[in-house]
Inverse folding.
C-alpha cells in the first residue's frame, strides 16, 4: 500500500534512458549486508539462549503470494525484539511482476508480559521492489469502486525505508500456538524509477517521495519454540 500510494503521484519525466534487455530483469535479491544481519540474528548465541523464541508468518502477505517469516526473542521482563522479513524473487506471470524484499526490526514493550496481551513498539524498515502490470479495482459497495492502476501498464523499481510506532496484541491459542495482530504508523521515503512497460528498459523518469501513514501491518500465526 505504501509503495502504490506514493507512485500514484507521478512526477514529470526527468530523463529518458533506453537500457538493454538485461537491465529489465535485474535481480533484487538481498544484498550482502542484509544477509549478514539475518545470519547474525539467526545464529547469535545470545538469541539461542533467550528465555523465549517465537517464529511467525504474516497471513495476509502469504495470501498475496509473498513468502515471509518473523522471529521474536525475549530481551527482558517486558521487552522483546521482533525481526520481520519478506522475500519474493518470483515473477507472477509474463505480464505481472511482483518482486520484493524487506527487513523490519522492532523493539516491543509488553504491558503485561511477553507474548501475552498488548504491546507497543518502535520499528524501522528497509527494502527494494520491482513491480509492474499490477492493477484492478475493488468494489466498496455504496462507496463505489476503488481503482489502483498506477502500475497497470508500467513498471517501477527502487528502494524504500521507514520508521514508526506500532501497537498490537497477542492472543494465546495453546501453549505453542498464538495469533498476533499489529498496526503501525510513521514516516518513510521511496526512491523509484518508472519504466514504460513490464519488460522494457525505457525509462519514464525517477522520483524520491516522502510518505506518511501505515508503515507496518500484520496478522500473524505464531509458534513458540521455547
Amino acid at each position: 500500500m505504501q509503495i502504490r500510494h506514493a507512485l500514484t503521484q507521478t512526477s514529470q519525466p526527468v530523463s529518458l534512458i533506453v537500457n538493454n534487455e538485461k537491465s529489465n530483469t535485474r535481480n533484487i535479491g538481498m544484498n550482502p549486508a542484509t544477509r549478514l544481519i539475518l545470519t547474525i540474528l539467526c545464529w547469535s548465541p545470545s538469541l539461542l539462549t533467550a528465555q523465549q523464541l517465537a517464529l511467525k508468518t504474516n497471513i495476509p502477505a502469504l495470501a498475496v503470494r509473498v513468502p515471509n517469516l518473523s522471529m521474536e526473542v525475549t530481551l527482558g521482563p517486558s521487552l522483546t525484539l521482533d525481526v520481520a522479513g519478506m522475500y519474493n524473487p518470483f515473477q507472477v506471470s509474463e505480464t505481472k511482476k511482483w518482486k520484493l524484499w524487506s527487513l523490519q526490526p522492532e523493539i516491543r514493550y509488553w504491558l503485561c508480559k511477553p507474548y501475552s496481551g498488548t504491546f507497543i513498539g518502535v520499528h524501522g524498515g528497509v527494502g527494494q521492489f520491482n513491480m509492474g502490470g499490477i492493477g484492478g479495482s475493488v468494489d466498496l459497495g455504496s462507496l463505489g469502486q476503488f481503482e489502483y492502476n498506477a502500475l497497470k501498464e508500467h513498471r517501477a523499481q527502487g528502494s524504500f525505508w521507514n520508521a514508526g510506532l506500532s501497537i498490537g496484541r497477542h492472543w494465546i491459542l495453546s501453549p505453542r500456538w498464538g495469533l498476533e495482530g499489529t498496526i503501525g504508523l510513521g514516516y518513510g521515503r521511496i526512491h523509484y524509477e518508472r519504466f514504460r512497460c513490464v519488460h522494457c528498459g525505457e525509462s519514464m523518469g525517477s522520483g524520491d517521495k516522502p510518505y506518511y501513514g501505515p508503515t507496518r501491518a500484520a496478522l500473524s500465526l505464531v509458534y513458540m519454540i521455547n
About this structure: The chain has one domain: 2-224. The first strand starts at residue 53 and ends at 58. The radius of gyration is 19 Å. Residues 98 and 150 are 14 Å apart (CA to CA).
